[in-house]
Amino acid sequence: MRSVAAGLTLALAMLAVGTTIPSASQAQAQSTAQNRYGSGEILWDSFGVPHVYAKTEAGAFYGFGFAQAQNHGDILLRMYGESRARAAEYWGEKFAKQDEWLIGNDVPERGRAWYKLQTPQMRANLDAFAAGVNAYAKANPDKLDPQVRQVLPLTGIDIITHAHKLMNFQYIASDRRVLANPDTNEAGGSNAWAVAPSRSASGNAMLLANPHLPWEPGPLTYMEAHINAPGIAIYGATQVGLPVMRFGFNNDLGFTNTVNTMLGYTSYALTLAEGGYMFDGKTMPFKTAQKSYKVKQADGSFKTVSFTQRYAVQGPVFDLPGGKTTVAVKVAGLDRPGVLQQYLDMGKAHDWAGFEKALRQMQVPMFNIVYADRGGHILYLDNGILPKHADGDIKYWSRPVPGDTSRTLWTDVHSYDEMPKVLDPASGFVQNANDPPWLSTWPRTLDPKAYPAYVANVGPVSQRAQMSIRMLSEGPKFSFEEFVAKKHETRSLMADRMIPVLVQAAQGNNDADVRQAIDLLKAWDHRDTADSRAALLFETWAAIFSPNNFTDQRNYAVKWTIDDPLQTPRGLKDPVAAIGMLKQAVAKTKELYGAVDRPYGEVSRFRVGDVSLPGNGGFGNTGIFRTITWEPMKNGERKPRAGETWVSMIEFGTPMKAMGLMSYGSSSQPHSRHRTDQLQYLSEGKLRTLWIDRKDVEAHVEETTRF
């Protein structure tokens, strides 16, 4: 009886401090991990954020793998199955074309080669991350969808292969982009700010990380975590499935990414000839390889699909839909396997010299990098692995170019020193909102004429980016609290510009619909807040006036120009037509939303599962910095498609100030209590304190996992 009582006392004590009592299988997994990965632990805070503490670097990766499996196991395993190019084998015909694209581009083979090219420490890290996922799955089989458990077990090869697939064949050269629409954006959007001490009221640098990716759980879902081990102490977020932080900060520096327009691949239109294809006046035979994959059938059996993959001098060969064009695809960076190593080294750095050393590796194939540190340095870098061309611009190289000549066949890429960048500008800030690099600070310091035309378009610069620059140009200095308030601004720059000229154009117009609309717009503060009664009307008019996601400038009197980049586009090209569009918008607003003056938050809802709260923020191309891309109306409301996912705001003072939010919660697993517990903050326009110091973490522990 004494032993039973002692055991019960121990169990109660463990529950009192928030420690999970392991099952037999969990205890066995923990014992194995302790022997191999150094007796670490995960302190799960009250928002479901894992704080991993390990005694070795590999141990930290093990803990992070375990944590990702706990918070996002279903989508995690599905992503690895897709990156193996075996999704059709696991889940059926709908994945066949995706598998064939990856196999045709040799992604699985290259993943194995990349694994061998990692340093011994990084291979150990990748193995450890995979082991962490496997350990969670072994200890908690009932918490994972049976459909994805067949992907187990993982190895370190799976982790690097997924990183390769995500970076090179989703962000840079997806099948949708290469074979269907070169303008496809697979990477989403984002905002970033870095403020120097000269513009900070406290004299400390400040940093905003603010990516805008899809809310639906999938390969672009974010995972927030805090990782601690010898040489590592980083807080931040990354895409589920990646074992390193892509958005992070330590006590001395921080960095974030925004999506840029890096053209990291080239598509070559081939001229077919008897026996092959034409190249420099000669007929060249295709090299070929036999490839295959399996497809699961409805009855559970498997069909093997075999195909012959052709290769030209430029790369793998594919037929575009319709069969009239055959292209070869050359992707930059396939000989650069260090993307995870570079991000790890960026997070390990503690000053500008160390961080720049990591940047010079040039292993990350795209994404602007925005940086700030305790020493007061700030940086904007138009980062990526960019092929060198003799001539041509973005438009030319984003479409298939002639493949019958060596003149278009690039053999080198640009170095770090050749990429546009702004370090410590006199303005005291850098910013990016997915616009070209030229307005990364203001006044402008980068000249497009100093770079090849294929580096980036000259413009136009979005009205979201213009609003970003305007807010950071206000001053002369602002506090951290003002920094946070600016980030939450929902004011529409397009409304600021266009409502006064609409009001002027409507003078003397006695149409009842027009008068009602003008009265609403005149009374509105131009902010997309939950109680706004004119925001839906203006958005509807703006979509008619400027179609194609508010980017078409045909109806403006003055189109965007780099000579006046913060005041254009503006004006009404045809005031009478614009008022006609306003009357049309009144009817459409009533049709869509039930009333012309429906409160914005009644139909725009922050919804995850059964939780639905009043929304705010809106479409970035209307000049709103707090970006929410709303889905079409369904069942009387609309919910976010993308925008406002991970946010962190840092001031490098003593103590450090760190605020943040993961809009859709820390977990995508069904029935998790951490899917909806941050929506109230989002609805109220607030951030939560990010717990960095161990004592603060321990004060908010919900659960402990030891390994």
TrEMBL record:
Q: Which Gene3D superfamilies match?
A: 1.10.1400.10, 2.30.120.10, Glutamine Phosphoribosylpyrophosphate, subunit 1, domain 1, Penicillin Amidohydrolase, domain 1
Active site (record annotation): S190 (nucleophile)
Print the keywords alphabetically: Hydrolase, Signal, Zymogen
Task: Return the Pfam families for the record.
Answer: Penicil_amidase
Q: Kindly list the GO molecular function terms attached to this UniProt entry.
A: hydrolase activity, acting on carbon-nitrogen (but not peptide) bonds, in linear amides
What GO biological process terms does the UniProt entry carry, in alphabetical order?
A: antibiotic biosynthetic process
Q: InterPro entries under this entry?
A: Ntn_hydrolases_N, Pen/GL7ACA/AHL_acylase, Penicillin_amidase_A-knob, Penicillin_amidase_dom1, Penicillin_amidase_N_B-knob, S45
User: What superkingdom heads the lineage?
Assistant: Bacteria
Which interval of the chain is the signal sequence? Answer: 1-29
Q: Which family would the database say this protein is a member of?
A: Belongs to the peptidase S45 family.
Q: Which PANTHER family match?
A: ACYL-HOMOSERINE LACTONE ACYLASE PVDQ, PEPTIDASE S45 PENICILLIN AMIDASE
Spell out the protein name for this chain: 7-beta-(4-carbaxybutanamido)cephalosporanic acid acylase
Question: Which species does this protein come from?
Answer: Sphingobium indicum BiD32
